[in-house]
Protein 1
Amino acid sequence: MYENFAYVYDRMMEDVDYVEWADYIEKLFCHYNVKPRDIADLACGTGNMTILMAERGYNVIGIDQSHDMLSVAQEKARKKGLSIPFVCQDMRDIELHRCVDAVTIMCDGINYIVEDDDLDLVFSGIFAMLKPGGLLLFDISTYYKLSSILGNNIMVDDDPDISLIWQNYFDEENSICTMDLTFFVREGSHYRRFDETHVQKAYKSQEIIKMLRQKGFENVNCYKHSTFETPNNRDQRILFGAQKP
């Protein structure tokens, strides 16, 4: 997964306003009265958020399980003259040499953890790596989005440089959305095809809130994305905040 996708990911995500997203994260820092210096950005992908936060003066470490994604991230940081450590680790088995003030997991990172036991490991590891008072921020694609917007639908994106056929299947019993992606990427006068399958779990907010509290987090809240409003059942993305005592 992500082996080929890593090199077209940024072109597919050009419509995402990462600056607005970073602004929102900083507003959440203020909302929780946290002034982080050291941040771990888990499931950092090609480093878009990692780099933005580093440019804003934070000491950020980017962590992802994909070597290819991290290779792209390192090259982008190098071109900007930034010295950002990028580490290849699975967030179910995270290990850092020092604790951090905040952990961020943006753009569906948690949805890719499809087993409850594994999510328990993720939250336990994050709790251990946060300093007292440290903050965890992460977003998810909602149950509604994965089950009703993406689930059991076929989508086509016909771009001159990258065409995508996106076939989705939603398993209601296990709350799993399987996404079969077929890419056609222009290379000179020809197109190269590659296929990937992505699997995401559709979590309900109360399930996540309960698990975070069981791990020892406090001030656990969820918000409609880029706001401080309470989510409704038609929101497609929500963000969670949780603080270590």
Protein 2
Amino acid sequence: MKARLLMGLIGAGALAIGWYHWGQGSAEPAPKAVATKSKVTGLSACKSVTFDGSRFTHCIASPAKHRIAMAVTGKDGMLYRGFARLKAERGDSGIAFAMNGGMYDVKSRPIGYYVENGERLQKLSRSKGSGNFHLMPNGVFFGDADGQWRVMTTDDFAAQITRRPQFGTQSGPMLLIDGKLHPEFTEDGPSRKIRNGVGVDAKGRAHFVISDDPVSFGKMARMMRDVAQTPNALFLDGTVSALWDPKSGRLDNLYPLGPLIVVTNRTKD
């Protein structure tokens, strides 16, 4: 009986660890990213930006220069759960940058809409619940590998998109909707965490932003609006947010991750 009770407590603790970063907690100290160094040299698609007193890393994917794909499972059938295994399998060659994107369960499997290489591995979720993912409206980042990238609310995606994209990931909440902050956000609320998000500008470029300081949802949204200038933007995650930028040598590996958004350099025909 005692052994069974102990196993139950261990299981509950593991579940709490897996789900904690979706909650709406108060401010907390955020650990610094752990990075390994890369030998790749050259200009990075990512740059440091300061906005409203906070530091961010801003990465831009352009359809003329880049392709975008999702990745969650390696060639061996095992989940990547982070950039280290992705790098070990693919190496630095051709990788512009990668960022985690999309909510996931305790085993790092996506819990919302997920499409990889044109194959839908998880259907669109419109369920209600607690945590960031269910802070409606949430949304989907999707598109074709070579361009036509978009961010839409989940309801709009369900109503308007009839053709399956080549990649897609569902997360939440939306940061910006038609240029306006999510209705539940204030300009700079009390919750402070490392956060990352994605939006697409009027030129069709995808802007990936990760805060290097703990920031509020509101400040993250305003950065996407005022600096990235993306009318629609999607929150990708918080606390566990991570970036792999081979050119600068940054490879965050502090927490197990779920779906990964991989941006590669286009090769000349």
Protein 3
Amino acid sequence: MTIYVTSDQHFGHAAARGFYRRPFPSVREMDAAMIAAWNDVVHAEDEVWHLGDFAVKQPPSRVADLLASLHGAKHLVTGNNDDAAVRTASGWSSIQAYAELQVDGARLVLCHYPFRSWHDMAKGAVNLHGHSHGRLKPVPRQHDVGVDACGFAPKVIINLLKAK
């Protein structure tokens, strides 16, 4: 099993194409490309931590269909655009506003929002976040894992930590 992290797909959000300068001619093509990118790297036995803003103003049936189409066990760390349809969807293995994980000895603090300081920061903990769509200046031991900063695909947590 491999553990991935991602955020900020904004599935179904027409304005995301303009707001974040996404290179897709339509919402349908944007969504299809992000589903394909997810499923190209994530396998059924893998785990994905989604750090918020999964879908925007989509009906519960659409959210359920999206979750069913994506590989892996999916955990949601809620974002500011995750409404009741997203938060109550049955396709999540867990739902929380904040999480801390240990992965291969690395201490991780997961939240939709980037922090200026975080739990165990002075002891080497790493903050993984979304929300900023690649627009914040990086700081040590903090990584924007949103699709706009990561080529529209989930990233392997350990590879992400080794790369920087």
